[in-house]
Design goal:
The protein is of the alpha+beta class. Helices cover 40% and strands 26% of the residues. It folds into seven domains: 137 residues, PAS domain (Beta-Lactamase, 2-Layer Sandwich), CATH 3.30.450; 117 residues, PAS domain (Beta-Lactamase), CATH 3.30.450.20; 100 residues, PAS domain (Beta-Lactamase, 2-Layer Sandwich); 85 residues, Beta-Lactamase (2-Layer Sandwich), CATH 3.30.450.20; 81 residues; 166 residues, Histidine kinase-like ATPase, C-terminal domain (Heat Shock Protein 90, 2-Layer Sandwich), CATH 3.30.565.10; 127 residues, Rossmann fold (3-Layer(aba) Sandwich).
Length: 908
C-alpha cells in the first residue's frame, strides 16, 4: 500500500499532491501503514480514502479503486452511513459499533457483513479535526457462527421440551437456571425459573440433599446418579420419588460451567417397591403381582426398550422390537446393534455409543434401523448410562419423518405462495411458487423489503391488517396487488397467521388474476342481463303508452273532427259536448304524462317542509269515504315525528293510490292501518333498503288483504304491470309512487306474504328545520289583464307560441316572439323594453332556456323569467335551483292559469 500511495496521482483529489501534504496527514498515514489491523483514513470534507494492506484485503474487488476515492462514492451502497460518520467525526465526535451489519458489494454482488467499527477524529496542525480514522475488524464469521450455535441450541431445547422426563440446565456456582422443559415445570409445580438460582426457586428443598449434590457435581466435575430419592415440594407430607442425574457441563477448555439435570418421577414404582417390602405376611403374592405389573408394562409398551452392554449387544429387549422391526430377543442378543444400522448412520452412532459409555446420556438421538425384511425405520432414542450398561428406549418416528418430508414436498410443489416473514418488512423464507407467479428470484425476495413490491395504494391497508393481527394474535385475510418481474401488478389474496414468537408470521398467497377475470366476465354477463331486462321494461312501457295515448288521441281528434263538421254545417247546438270531450281527453293525457314523469323521476316537484302526521290527519275523512264502510281505517301517528321535505300534494296522491290498492285487495272488507315513525338507519339497515345511512321518516300502510307472491313483489314497480282485470288499472300507480319517492331522496319497500296482507312503507329523508306555515294565497283570475307590458315568448313549437301570444295579446300585453334561442337572445340584447321572458326549457340552436335566461340577465339583471317545460329539465334550470324572479309552469297548462301566473310574476 505504501508503494500504491506513492504512485497515486493525488492532485486529482481534494487533498492535493503528496508533496504538499501537511505533517499531520503524513504522520497518521505512516502510522496506519505499519498497523496489522485494517485501518482507513478518511481525509477532508470529501472523506478521501487512504488505507493499509489489511484494509485492502477487507475491501475485496473494490481495491485498488477505493484508494483516493470519496468514501460516500467509493462505498455508495452505504453512503448514508458514511455521511453520518464524516459529519460526527469532523465535528470532533467518536463513534463505535459492535457487530454492525452492512450490505457491501465486495465480491461483485451484495452480501451481508458484520464488523466492529471505531471512528476517531484526526486533528491537523491547528488542532481542528481534518479527517477521520476508522478501525475495521470484520466479525461476519463470528456472528454467523454464533447464530448457528443459537439455532442449534434452540433446536435442542425444543427437543428436550418434548421429553417425557424432566430436564433442566443451570450455570455457574450459583446454579442459575438457563433452561427447563415442560415436564420439569409440571413436576416442580413452579413457573418462574429462568434467571433465578436453584436456591431461590427451591428454598423448600434445603436439608433434603439436593443443594449439596448439585454443589458437589459443579465443584468436582463428577456426575451424580441417584435413584428413588425422596422429594418434598412445598413442604408436602407425602414425598415424591425421582431418579435423576446431575451431569457437569464443560466448556471447550474442559472447565465446568454448569450442570445438566435430567430424570424421571418414579413415585409409583418406589411406593410399590416399598409396599412390597412392607407386606412381609404376603411377600410372595406381592412379588408376583408387582412383577406381573412390570412385566405387563414391558410386554405392552409400544416403545422399543432394552439394556445394551458395553460390547454393543442388547442383553434384554421387549416384544416391541419384534413387532416393529421383526427381530426376536435372541437375534438381538447375539448380534451387535451396529449391524442393524443404516450405513450412513454408523459414524454418528459410534460417537454416541462411546459418549454413553463415558457417562453422557443421549436424548432424542435419531438413526435408522434395518427391519428383517430389509427396509429401514427411523427411531428416536433416549439412552441413559448406568453401571457400565446403557438403558435404552426408542420410539418409531418413521411416520413423523414422512409427514415432515411431505410438508417439505408441499412447500416445493404448492401452487400457492408460501412465506415466513416478520413485521419489520423482511421475508425469511419463500417457496418456489413466488418465482413461478411473480418472476422474482429467491435472493431478491429475501434481500429486499417486501413493501417494495406492494402497490403503494395497498400499503396502508396491508400494514393495518398485519398490525391488527399482531395485536389480536388471530389469523387474518386480505387482498393487495403485488408487482411481478414483468411490471404487472397482480391481485393476490392472503391468509396470514402469527407465530407464537410475536416477531414472525406465516403467509399463504394465492394469485387471483384468473378469479378477477372471471368476476369481470360475470359482471359483464350480469350487465348484459340487466340491459336485456331494461329493454324488456322499455318495450312494455312504450307499448302501454302507445295503447293509452291512442285512446286519448282518438277522443281528442274525433271530438275536433265532429266539431269542425258541425261548424262547417252551421249547426252550433251540441258543440259544447265535443269541446268537453276533447278537454277531458286532454286532461287525462296530462295526468298520464304526470304519472310517466313520476315513474321516470323527471316530474316537477315543489318540495317543502312537511309534517306527515298533519298530512295524514287531513286526509282521513277522504280516505274513509274512498274505502267505504266495510273497511276499518286506523291512523297511528308517532309522537315527536320529524319533518321531511317533500311535495305534499304528490305525497297525498301517492297515499291515496296506496289506499285504493289496499281497498281493491280486500273486496270482502278488512282493516287498513296507516303508521308513521322516526327511523335511524345504520349501515346494515340502510343497505337492506338501498339508502344512505341516516335519519328517515317512514309512512307505512298495512292491509289485511290477499297479499302478494314474491314474483308479484319483484315486478310491482314495473310500468303497466297490474294484477287487476283488464280495464280496471293502468299499472302506473306503484311506478309513479316509486319514481316520486326516489326523486324525493327516499325509497319504497313492500313487505307481503300471500294470504297475510301487505305493508307498503315509504322512507323519506328527515328535514332539520322549521315547518313552513305560509299558506299559498288564492289567485284572483279576474286580475289577469295587463297594462301594456312587453313579454318576449321563445318556443320552437309554433302552435304553443301562437296560443301563448294570443292569450297575452288579448290580456293587454305587448308580445314579442322568437322560434329559437339565438333569435330570442338577439332581441334580449337589443334596446327593446322587456318586462318578462317566457321561454321553453328545451330549445334548438345550441342554447337551452336556462342558458338564454342567464345570458339575458347579464345585461338585464332584474329581468323576470317564466320557464315552460314538459318535464323538469334539471340541468337546464340549475338542478332544481331557481334564482329570484324565476318560476316554472309545467305543460300542459290552462290558458287562464298562464295569464294569472304572468300577472303574478310581473306584479311580484
Amino acid at each position: 500500500m505504501a508503494r500504491l500511495i506513492r504512485a497515486f496521482d493525488w492532485s486529482t483529489t481534494s487533498i492535493g499532491p503528496i508533496e504538499g501534504w501537511p505533517q499531520s496527514l503524513q504522520t497518521i498515514t505512516g502510522f496506519m501503514l505499519r498497523s496489522p489491523v485494517p485501518l482507513v483514513l478518511l481525509w477532508g470534507e470529501d472523506g478521501v480514502m487512504i488505507y493499509n494492506d489489511a484494509y485492502s484485503i477487507f475491501a475485496g474487488v473494490r481495491h485498488p479503486q477505493l484508494l483516493g476515492s470519496k468514501v460516500r462514492e467509493g462505498w455508495d451502497e452505504v453512503a448514508d452511513f458514511n455521511d453520518n460518520v464524516m459529519r460526527v467525526g469532523l465535528a470532533g465526535g467518536t463513534l463505535a459499533y459492535k457487530d454492525q451489519e452492512l450490505v457491501l458489494n465486495r465480491t461483485g454482488q451484495p452480501e451481508q457483513a458484520w464488523m466492529d467499527l471505531d471512528y476517531s477524529p484526526v486533528p491537523d496542525e491547528s488542532g481542528d479535526p481534518a479527517g477521520v480514522i476508522a478501525i475495521v475488524v470484520e466479525t461476519t464469521e463470528r456472528v454467523l457462527a454464533g447464530r448457528r450455535a443459537e439455532a442449534e441450541q434452540e433446536r435442542q431445547r425444543r427437543m428436550l421440551s418434548q421429553m417425557p422426563g424432566f430436564v433442566g440446565v443451570v450455570t455457574g456456582p450459583e446454579h442459575v437456571y438457563e433452561y427447563v422443559n415442560d415436564a420439569y415445570v409440571k413436576l416442580s409445580a413452579r413457573a418462574d425459573f429462568i434467571g433465578r438460582s436453584f436456591a431461590q426457586v427451591f428454598p423448600d428443598l434445603v436439608g433434603q440433599g439436593f443443594h449439596e449434590l448439585l454443589d458437589k457435581a459443579y465443584r468436582t466435575g463428577e456426575a451424580n446418579v441417584s435413584r428413588g430419592m425422596a422429594l418434598r415440594l412445598h413442604g408436602a407430607e407425602e414425598p415424591l420419588y425421582i431418579d435423576f442425574v446431575f451431569e457437569p457441563i464443560r466448556d471447550d477448555a474442559g472447565e465446568v460451567t454448569g450442570v445438566f439435570i435430567g430424570g424421571y418421577e418414579v413415585t409409583e414404582a418406589h411406593r410399590a417397591a416399598h409396599a412390597l417390602r412392607a407386606l412381609n405376611a404376603d411377600l410372595e403374592r406381592q412379588v408376583v403381582e408387582r412383577a406381573a405389573e412390570r412385566g405387563r408394562t414391558w410386554e405392552l409398551s409400544p416403545d422399543l426398550i432394552g439394556v445394551l452392554n458395553d460390547k454393543g449387544y442388547f442383553e434384554t429387549s421387549n416384544p416391541a422390537w419384534q413387532a416393529t422391526l421383526g427381530w426376536s430377543a435372541e437375534e438381538l442378543a447375539r448380534t451387535p446393534f451396529f449391524e442393524f444400522l443404516h450405513p450412513d448412520d454408523l459414524d454418528r452412532n459410534h460417537q454416541a455409543f462411546d459418549a454413553a459409555l463415558e457417562g453422557r446420556p443421549a436424548i432424542r438421538f435419531e438413526n435408522r434401523y434395518r427391519r428383517k425384511d430389509g427396509s429401514y425405520r427411523w427411531l428416536s432414542w433416549v439412552a441413559i448410562p448406568e453401571d457400565g450398561k446403557i438403558y435404552c428406549s426408542a420410539r418409531d418416528i418413521t411416520d413423523d419423518k414422512a409427514a415432515t418430508a411431505e410438508r417439505d414436498r408441499l412447500w416445493v410443489l404448492s401452487e400457492d405462495m408460501l412465506a415466513r416473514a416478520d413485521y419489520g418488512g423482511d421475508l425469511s423464507a419463500v417457496n418456489p411458487a413466488w418465482t413461478k407467479v411473480l418472476g422474482w428470484s429467491e435472493h431478491k425476495l429475501l434481500t429486499d423489503p417486501y413493501a417494495d413490491i406492494i402497490h403503494p395504494d395497498n400499503i396502508p391497508a396491508t400494514v393495518a391488517a398485519l398490525a391488527e393481527m399482531g395485536e389480536t394474535g388471530q389469523p387474518t385475510r386480505f387482498e393487495n396487488r403485488i408487482l411481478s418481474a414483468d411490471g404487472v401488478w397482480k391481485p393476490i389474496g392472503w391468509t396470514v397467521a402469527p407465530e407464537p414468537d410475536g416477531v414472525n408470521f406465516i403467509a399463504v398467497g394465492r394469485d387471483l388474476t384468473e378469479d378477477k377475470a372471471r368476476e369481470a366476465q360475470l359482471a359483464q354477463a350480469q350487465e348484459a342481463l340487466r340491459q336485456s331486462q331494461k329493454m324488456e321494461a322499455v318495450g312494455q312501457l312504450t307499448g302501454g303508452i302507445a295503447h293509452d295515448f291512442n285512446n286519448l288521441l282518438a277522443g281528442i281528434s274525433g271530438s275536433l273532427e265532429l266539431l269542425e263538421k258541425r261548424l262547417a254545417e252551421g249547426r252550433l247546438t251540441g258543440v259544447e259536448r265535443y269541446i268537453d270531450m276533447a278537454q277531458t281527453s286532454a286532461r287525462r293525457a296530462a295526468a298520464l304524462t304526470q304519472r310517466l314523469l313520476a315513474f321516470s323521476r323527471r316530474q316537477t316537484l315543489d318540495p317543502r317542509p312537511t309534517d306527515i302526521n298533519r298530512l295524514v290527519a287531513g286526509m282521513e275523512d277522504m280516505i274513509r269515504r274512498t274505502v267505504g264502510p266495510s273497511i276499518e281505517v286506523e291512523a297511528v301517528g308517532a309522537g315527536g315525528l320529524w319533518l321531511t321535505q317533500v311535495d305534499a300534494p304528490q305525497l297525498e296522491n301517492a297515499l291515496l293510490n296506496l289506499v285504493i290498492n289496499a281497498r281493491d285487495a280486500m273486496p270482502d272488507g278488512g282493516r287498513i292501518t296507516i303508521e308513521t315513525a322516526n327511523k335511524w338507519l345504520d349501515d346494515r339497515a340502510a343497505r337492506e333498503r338501498e339508502l344512505p345511512p341516516g335519519q328517515y321518516v317512514s309512512l307505512c300502510l298495512t292491509d289485511t288483504g290477499s297479499g302478494m307472491t314474491p314474483e308479484v313483489i319483484s315486478r310491482a314497480f314495473d310500468p303497466f304491470f297490474t294484477t287487476k282485470p283488464l280495464g280496471q288499472g293502468t299499472g302506473l300507480g306503484l311506478s309513479m309512487i316509486h319514481g316520486f319517492v326516489r326523486q324525493s331522496g327516499g325509497q319504497v319497500r313492500i313487505y307481503s306474504e300471500l294470504g297475510e296482507g301487505t305493508t307498503m312503507c315509504l322512507y323519506l329523508p328527515r328535514f332539520v328545520g322549521e315547518l313552513d306555515e305560509v299558506e299559498t294565497p288564492e289567485v284572483d283570475h279576474g286580475g289577469d289583464a295587463g297594462h301594456g307590458e312587453t313579454v318576449l315568448v321563445i318556443d320552437d313549437e309554433e302552435a304553443i307560441r301562437m296560443l301563448v301570444a294570443d292569450v297575452l295579446d288579448e290580456a293587454g300585453y305587448r308580445v314579442l316572439e322568437a322560434g329559437d334561442g339565438p333569435a330570442g337572445l338577439k332581441i334580449l340584447q337589443s334596446d327593446a323594453r322587456i318586462d318578462l321572458l317566457i321561454t321553453d326549457v328545451g330549445l334548438p340552436g345550441g342554447m337551452n332556456g336556462r342558458q338564454i335566461a342567464d345570458a339575458a340577465r347579464i345585461g338585464r339583471p332584474e329581468l323576470k323569467v317564466l320557464f315552460i317545460t314538459g318535464y323538469a329539465e334539471n340541468a337546464a334550470v340549475g338542478h332544481g335551483h331557481l334564482d329570484a324572479g324565476m318560476q316554472v309552469i309545467t305543460k300542459p297548462f290552462a290558458m287562464t292559469a298562464l295569464g294569472a301566473r304572468v300577472r303574478e310574476i310581473i306584479e311580484g
